[in-house]
Write a structure and sequence with these properties.
The structure holds two protein chains of two kinds.
Chain A lengths: L1 H12 L12 E6 L8 E7 L5 E10 L6 E4 L1 E3 L2 E6 L8 E10 L4 E4 L9 E4 L11 E4 L5 E3 L4 E5 L13 E4 L2 E2 L4 E4 L2 E5 L1 H5 L6 E9 L5 E12 L4 E2 L6 E15 L2 E16 L2 E10 L11 E7 L3 E8 L13 E9 L3 E11 L5 E6 L10 E3 L5 E5 L4 E13 L3 E13 L11 E13 L4 E13 L9 H7 L10 H11 L9 E2 L9 E11 L2 E10 L15 E12 L4 E11 L11 E11 L7 E12 L14 E16 L3 E15 L5 E17 L2 E16 L4 E18 L4 E12 L3 E13 L2 E12 L5 E11 L2
Parallel strand pairs in A: 11-18
Antiparallel strand pairs in A: 1-2, 2-6, 3-4, 3-7, 5-6, 7-8, 7-9, 10-12, 12-16, 13-14, 13-17, 15-16, 17-18, 19-20, 20-21, 20-49, 21-22, 22-23, 23-24, 24-25, 25-26, 26-30, 27-29, 28-29, 30-31, 31-32, 32-33, 33-34, 33-35, 35-36, 36-37, 37-38, 38-39, 39-40, 40-41, 41-42, 42-43, 43-44, 44-45, 45-46, ...
Chain B lengths: L1 H20 L8 E7 L2 E4 L6 E2 L5 E2 L4 E4 L4 E6 L4 E4 L4 E9 L2 E16 L8 E5 L2 E5 L3 E7 L2 E8 L2 E5 L6 E4 L3 E5 L5 E5 L2 H10 L3 E9 L2 E9 L1
Parallel strand pairs in B: 9-10
Antiparallel strand pairs in B: 1-4, 1-6, 2-3, 2-5, 5-8, 6-7, 7-9, 8-9, 9-12, 10-11, 11-14, 12-13, 13-16, 14-15, 16-17, 18-19
The chains are: A mainly beta, B mainly beta.
């Protein structure tokens, strides 16, 4: 009885909160294990999805000052994105989310990311000890069949100090060691307990913990593998096999007294036929509206060893200067022939949406201004801009020789369809050509990478190509521009084959290379020292519709050095970056952005706490003195930031997982504006696995921000404290799963969120889930969200 | 003192003989990760039984396949051996620290081997007419009717005929050889047909086509990558 009461009280007071902060749009964020070289997946649970138009993840590895932005895929109340493994580096990665709303406002998560209070995840190093555990099956990159579930490990290469019989194995967090067969170097896992802990149709995690003879921890290996469910259907008389799952949700949101119903449906299917694999996915939602960018998603793909064709929504990856993190709705294809390979994409990156008239202005009003437009009847109107349908074509032939050599050429052409949106100005066209080269030597210990791209953009193609008669009026002897009109016409005829030629074409002087971007890097990895030097240079005119987020008008160096000591347990990292704007001398002052980073990170054996201590200093200076006549334009500030993070997973009667982080930063502005700022942040994440059926967590975040206006001597203070108490409870032999959370927020934003979820498996492959969220707001009316989801897995 | 010495000798003899009597079985050196259709297993001292996925194999254990059958087994150093249809194989393994010396003795049939680079010096494949010391990582080895055929896709393979003239030859990548009972080795570049044969030997996934006929179902099984 007492045990039961304890469980109930724990359920009420401690839930599942993985990571949560105050936000109007994101309720929690989940990350996969952050390990160097392994892909990292971010999943965000969303609120008020009706108001969200786009979510972007911004991240940067330690040592970089520039955040890389990637658009997330939104699937109903969730958004997801995966960063490739080669981007994930020890010791840490900072990130935040940018939520763009349909009202053209922007919110950050965490809400004070604007004050440089970012989220941080500690990246575990890849250890040489990983090689001491050989995963014999499943083979890397292959899928494990749920029907014939078998995991075999070999400890042949394990250190002599390891007691192989003490090895522990966890599948998806569950200890399955008791069902393993130990036979000298071999560990064999099979049978019902393994099968019951596998998640079919998704990535499963495995953790292998090695211990020394005295029982102290030696090393732990993390590994992931896919599991397929072989129990699919089959078309009789053929080798066509398939399986699928469907999900349907109906949700009611009452936010700020606005009541909305949302219904969505998703389908995911896979099939094989001979050597061909087919994939299909559909997400259809009632939020899909013709006057908004697409919410529905669909994708069909067919692939074999030599080619891959995808129809529908897909985010292709080309050289990063040209196309990266951009969803294309259309056709994507690739051919892999060994030395010669080709990938191409054709489709739409923006939907055409009509604008609208806000006001009809008096006759003869000025047309100057982006939101003013002359209508077909001659009147002048103030408009709310729509969006043109934007098509893109990208082609990338590339040549490879194993993993040693890769050389590619990339062509991108993108153009707005002027007829696709009424009351909308400024259809544009973009052309980018580029090349990239990668050389890897000595098993990747020497890596050389370089890429370059040149862009041309036409910022208004509404008037089409400039007429020959106009050229004759403007060019020639005694005309405004002089020169030869015939030469201009010849140039026009050549350029017009690629992009619309008129007065809105940029760059106007290609020879100044203001639209050229290039970068190169060299990394060396020897004697436990990883050294990387890179140089970037991007002109202010460089622009690619395939990567809108690229920082332009910048050039400079970045040097990163990481030394690993104590058998990859201790890492000392130093980074230096110096970037300058005004590459093409178009500004009257050049600003220098200097960043210095240093960190010490310690990863002892997995049952001891690991920590990171870091220091970052940013200096920005454009050389204008505060005493100069143009001192209002002066930039002269520096920010010092100290950070610490401790993570600790331990067993003290139960499995505990603890993470504590703190950061303190101060900005000093030496200009006459004296905009100083101080930010302090503290975070605590603590979860306990009381048993196989009960888990709970505690999440506390405190953020204190102070912005000082030295001119007016006014200090603005913004403090938030948020607490999340949650738990998950499995009942009725895992047929019923209960989740609950209470999340009060104090300080300058005050509210309390109460979450409850119940999922019941009516059949092994059919479940119903009820989800409820209630927000008690301060000063405004309370919000509520309730939804019912049905899931069915065909088997 | 003498009494203690006699007792010590008796105890030593007892320990010696008892330890021999309770000798530990040889440690497993490989595990079966895939079985297609009917395959059998015979421990060093035992009789033939049905082979199942997950079976650990020790030195001198034997496996055999019938028609349309296939076994994939992995050694503890992650080397892979695919035993094709109508084959019989004995594995011998000697562990030396963190390395294992592996010998695959082919009584009949065909194997495809993929050997981890760091351990390739310790891998031999034998038939009654040939011993091949592996310097390569990917090859096909078949024995039938006193003739051994080897196709090498990657690396090098040192071949020693066991009978008659006892020819030796070092195969280079992309070459194949035939060894007959008179001890001669005929080597040359692999033909397209031999390359195709090699490629087929790497396939382990079974696909089925079921043809419905008035007389019943006709099932066609074939292997893919």
């Amino acid at each position: 009885m007492l045990r039961h009461l304890l469980k109930i009280s724990l359920f009420v007071f401690f839930p599942v909160a993985l990571f949560a902060q105050v936000s109007n749009y994101i309720s929690s964020v989940k990350l996969s294990d952050a390990k160097e070289g392994a892909a990292l997946t971010f999943k965000a649970d969303l609120l008020n999805t009706n108001d969200i138009s786009e979510i972007t993840l911004a991240y940067r590895v330690f040592g970089a000052s520039e955040f890389v932005r990637v658009e997330m895929d939104i699937w109903g109340p969730k958004a997801e994105v995966t960063i490739p493994g080669e981007k994930i580096k020890v010791p840490s990665l900072e990130y935040y989310f940018i939520v763009s709303t349909r009202n053209n406002t922007t919110e950050y998560y965490p809400i004070d990311a604007v004050n440089q209070n970012y989220l941080m995840v500690q990246v575990q190093p890849r250890s040489e000890k990983d090689d001491e555990v050989l995963v014999l099956s499943p083979d890397p990159g292959t899928e494990l069949s749920a029907d014939e579930a078998l995991i075999t490990l070999s400890l042949l290469k394990a250190d002599e100090s390891v007691d192989k019989t003490k090895t522990k194995i966890y599948i998806n967090g569950t200890d399955v060691t008791s069902s393993a067969l130990f036979a000298d170097d071999l560990i064999i896992l099979a049978g019902e307990e393994l099968a019951s802990n596998l998640k079919k149709g998704s990535v499963n995690s495995m953790r292998v913990e090695l211990y020394k003879e005295d029982g102290t921890a030696y090393h732990s290996l993390y590994s992931g593998f896919d599991v397929t469910d072989e129990l699919g259907g089959r078309v009789e008389g053929t080798s066509f096999k398939y399986f699928f799952n469907v999900r349907a949700e109906s949700r009611n949101e009452n936010v700020r007294d606005n009541n909305n119903w949302y219904n969505n449906f998703s389908f995911d299917g896979k099939a094989t036929y001979g050597g061909f694999d087919l994939d299909a996915s559909v997400y259809a939602t009632s939020e899909e509206k013709g006057y908004l960018q697409p919410y529905n998603r669909y994708k069909v793909s067919i692939s074999n060893e030599y080619f891959n064709i995808i129809g529908g929504d897909y985010t292709p990856s080309y050289q990063s200067l040209i196309m990266n993190g951009k969803r294309v709705r259309g056709v994507n294809g690739s051919i892999h022939l060994g030395f010669f390979n080709l990938q191409a994409s054709y489709g739409e990156i923006n939907r055409g949406i009509d604008g609208s008239i806000l006001n009809i202005l008096p006759p003869n009003s000025s047309l100057l201004g982006p939101n003013l437009m002359k209508l077909s009847d001659g009147s002048i109107a103030e408009i709310k801009q729509g969006t043109f349908k934007r098509d893109v074509l990208a082609i990338n032939p590339y040549f490879t020789a194993g993993e040693t050599f890769k050389f590619g050429l990339t062509y991108l052409h993108s153009k707005d369809d002027y007829a696709s949106a009424a009351y909308t100005r400024g259809p544009q066209e973009n052309l980018v050509v580029g090349t990239d080269l990668a050389l890897n030597f000595d098993d990747g210990n020497i890596q050389l990478y370089g890429q370059g791209a040149f862009s041309v953009i036409n910022k208004d193609i509404a008037t089409g190509t400039i007429a020959d008669s106009t050229i004759d009026k403007l060019f020639g002897e005694g005309k405004i521009f002089g020169g030869s009109s015939d030469d201009i016409k010849k140039i026009k005829d050549i350029i017009n084959q690629f992009i619309t030629f008129n007065q809105f074409l940029s760059p106007l002087k290609p020879e100044e290379l203001s639209s050229l971007a290039y970068e190169a890097s060299l990394s060396l990895n020897y004697f436990g020292n990883y050294l990387k030097g890179s140089y970037i240079s991007r002109g202010f005119d460089y622009f690619s519709f395939g990567n809108n987020y690229l920082r332009t008008d910048v050039s400079g160096i970045n040097i990163f050095d990481r030394v690993s000591l104590l058998d990859n347990k201790l890492f000392v990292t130093l980074g230096y970056e110096n970037l300058k704007d005004n590459r093409n001398k178009t500004k009257f002052a050049t600003t220098s952005f200097t960043t210095f980073n240093a960190s010490v990170s310690y990863y002892p054996s997995f049952d001891l706490p690991g920590f990171i201590l870091s220091f970052t200093r940013n200096e920005n200076n454009n050389g204008i003195l505060r005493t100069a006549s143009d001192s209002l334009f002066a930039i002269d500030d520096y920010t010092n930031r100290f950070g610490a993070q401790v993570t600790y997973r331990f067993f003290a009667g139960y499995n505990h997982n603890l993470s504590v982080n703190a950061s303190f930063s101060g900005r000093i502005d030496n200009t006459i504006n004296k905009f100083d700022a101080n930010n302090n942040m503290f975070g605590l994440n603590y979860s306990i696995e009381w048993s196989k059926v009960l888990q709970s967590s505690l999440n506390l975040n405190y953020s204190s921000n102070e912005i000082i206006n030295g001119l007016s001597n006014v200090t603005t203070v913004f403090n938030i404290t948020s607490l999340v108490l949650g738990s998950r409870y499995y009942l009725m032999d895992n047929k019923l799963i209960l989740n609950g959370a209470v999340s009060p927020t104090f300080g300058d934003i005050q509210r309390t969120a109460i979450d409850a979820t119940a999922q019941y498996f009516i059949l092994k492959n059919f479940s119903l889930q009820f989800q409820f969220r209630y927000l008690i707001n301060d000063a405004v009316s309370n919000d509520s969200i309730a939804g019912l989801t049905a899931r069915y897995e065909f088997r | 003192m003498k009494k203690y010495f006699v007792n010590f000798c008796i105890l030593s003899f007892a320990v010696f003989f008892l330890s021999g009597a309770t000798e530990m079985p040889p440690a497993p050196a490989a595990v079966v990760t895939k079985v297609v259709n009917s395959a059998q297993y015979k421990p060093a001292s035992g009789s033939w039984t049905t082979l199942k996925v997950g079976q650990a194999l020790s030195t001198n254990d034997m496996v055999k396949t019938s028609g349309k059958a296939l076994i994939v087994l992995k050694f503890t150093d992650n080397s892979v051996l695919k035993v094709r249809e109508n084959s019989q194989v004995t594995i011998s393994v000697t562990k030396n620290g963190k390395n294992v010396s592996k010998t695959v003795d082919i009584g009949k049939g065909t194997v495809n081997a993929s050997v981890t680079k760091q351990d390739q010096q310790d891998f031999k494949v034998k038939s009654p007419t040939l011993v091949a010391s592996v310097r390569g990582t990917e090859f096909l080895f078949g024995y039938d009717n006193d003739t051994t055929n080897v196709y090498l896709m990657e690396g090098k393979l040192f071949c020693e005929a066991q009978l008659g003239k006892k020819d030796t030859y070092e195969l280079q990548e992309g070459m194949g050889c035939t060894v007959t009972s008179d001890g001669t080795i005929q080597a040359g570049e692999m033909t397209e047909k031999q390359k195709q044969e090699y490629n087929n030997s790497t396939k382990t996934n079974v696909r089925k086509v079921i043809l419905k006929t008035p007389q019943g179902d006709l099932i066609i099984e074939y292997l893919t990558d």
